[in-house]
Write a structure and sequence with these properties.
Number of helices: 0
Bound molecules: zinc ion
Structural class: mainly beta
Largest sheet: 2 strands, antiparallel
Distance between the termini: 34 Å
Order of helices and strands: EEEE
Shape: globular
Number of strands: 4
Helix content: under 10%
Strand content: 35-45%
């Protein structure tokens, strides 16, 4: 087991997503400042450019 360092500001943010193909829910490490996230679903094997749900 390894703990993540808590001192440095992360370049990514944990975001809940759901697969547009199969509806599976997952968490991804979304790079800060990016509106889209290229993601491949390990469940249905399809690839998507996910968009952030939250409007800042
Ligand atoms: Zn899927």
């Amino acid at each position: 087991m390894s703990d993540e360092p808590t001192g440095a500001a992360p370049a990514t943010q944990r975001e809940p997503i759901s697969c547009p193909g199969c509806g599976r829910h997952d968490w991804v490490s979304w790079p800060l400042g990016h509106d889209t996230y290229p993601w491949k679903c390990f469940n249905c094997g399809k690839e998507f450019d996910l968009t952030r749900k939250r409007a800042h």
